[in-house]
Each structure stands twice: as structure tokens, then as C-alpha cells.
Amino acid sequence: MADHVQSRTTVPPAPVEDAATTRDGTPDGAGTVTVRPTTPDDWKELRALRLEMLRDTPEAYGETLDDALRHDEAEWRSRGARGTAPGGTFVVAVEPAGRWVGIMGGRQTDPDAEPMLYGVYVAPSHRGRDAGVADALLDAVEDWARTMSGTLRLTVHEDNHRAQAFYARRGYRLTGTTSPYPLDETRRELEMRRALNLSPGG
């Protein structure tokens, strides 16, 4: 996951099912982004952003660019439907002009499982704490996760130090559990977890 000055207008995070959460989202502070769930009709934008993600940070995902290029419209519509699907959420950050600049998902595979963060990406132009896009997206996924569980879990590539630092700032801690990275089993993914009832510094 990539996390990349001006005064920022901060509003309380909206529930994922709300229409929008507005945050400062451009490097010069001149505009805003809207955070909202994805829909099947977003399939073209979702495809374009997914291909951008896989070109920018291929080691952050368990899918190759070649595999993504082979998916048809039905697959992308199915992915867009995750925004409001039972047991999950998928939220996107959109500029006023319509450009997608970030995305994050959450899923719970069964009622006894911890919710899992996945599919995280922020465009290079909107990375960093001052831009606020990664924080706004994670706020939305955490709000959803609180309705499912008291924790949110994620895995991050061992070499993705920027993402690890972002998650640590948000209160996620390494659990000590690791797993092979699916596309290169000589590398590891690190598990991190946050108790959502605690402040990030807790």
C-alpha cells in the first residue's frame, strides 16, 4: 500500500454506506476528493485504476498485470459490486473531475473471521499524510469493520516499508505472523492488526 500543505478541511468520517465523505485531496489543497463505495457501473474506472496499481506497485498485490488484462467486463462489474456486498466493502477516492486517485477494500470471509483490509492503493500524486487520501479511505474501511468486529487485520509485503510506516501511524502492530508472498514464495508478507476500540497510539 502506498501512502503519500496546506490547511485541510476535516469532516467526521462518514459510514461507508453514506453517499460521500469529503476531504482535502490535491497536493496544492485546491480541491477535494469524495470517498464512496464502488458499484458495478464503475467497472471501466475500476479496471483502469487496477491496471495502474499493478504497474506502480506490483509486489503489493496477489495478481499480475497480465492476469488483470485478461479479465472481461463481467469480472470488473463483479469487483465493482464489492462496494455494497454483504460481508465486505470497497471504497474509492474520486476527484471532482472524476479521476480515481485511491481505493481500499475490506472483507470478512465468515462471521467468526476477523475483517481483512485488502486492495489498497493511492495514486502517487495524492500520497502522504498532508494529502489525506489514504487516511480518508482507511477511515471508511475501519468504520465498516467496526460493524463486524473489534479488529482489522492486513498483510503487507516485507519490502513495502512506506506502507508499513503508514499502518503503524494508524495504530496497526506487527503480530509476528508471516506468510509467503503468493507471486514469489521466497518473499514474505507480514501480518499487522489494530484493535479498533483503541486510539492509533494505544
Could you explain how this protein is built, in words?
The chain has helices spanning 43-56, 65-69, 73-80, 133-146, 161-169, and strands at residues 21-24, 32-37, 88-94, 100-107, 116-122, 151-157, 173-181, 184-195. The protein is an alpha+beta fold. It has a single domain (21-195), classed as Gcn5-related N-acetyltransferase (GNAT) (Aminopeptidase), CATH 3.40.630.30. β4 and β5 (116-122) form a beta hairpin. Mean pLDDT is 86; it is low at 1-31.
Looking at how many chains there are and whether they match, the oligomeric state comes to single chain
Supply Rg. 16 Å
Structural class: alpha+beta
Mean pLDDT across residues:
86
Q: How many domain modules?
A: 1
Strand content: 25-35%
The run of helices and strands is: EEHHHEEEHEHEE
Write down the CATH class: Alpha Beta
Tertiary shape: globular
Q: Find the count of extended strands (DSSP E, 2+ residues).
A: 8
Looking at this protein, list some descriptive labels.
5 helices, transferase, alpha+beta, 5-stranded antiparallel β-sheet, acyltransferase, acyltransferase activity, transferring groups other than amino-acyl groups, Aminopeptidase, GNAT family N-acetyltransferase, globular, Acyl_CoA_acyltransferase, 3-stranded antiparallel β-sheet, 202 residues
Give the gist of this structure.
The chain is of the alpha+beta class and 202 residues long. It has 5 helices and 8 strands. It has helices spanning 43-56, 65-69, 73-80, 133-146, 161-169, and strands at 21-24, 32-37, 88-94, 100-107, 116-122, 151-157, 173-181, 184-195.
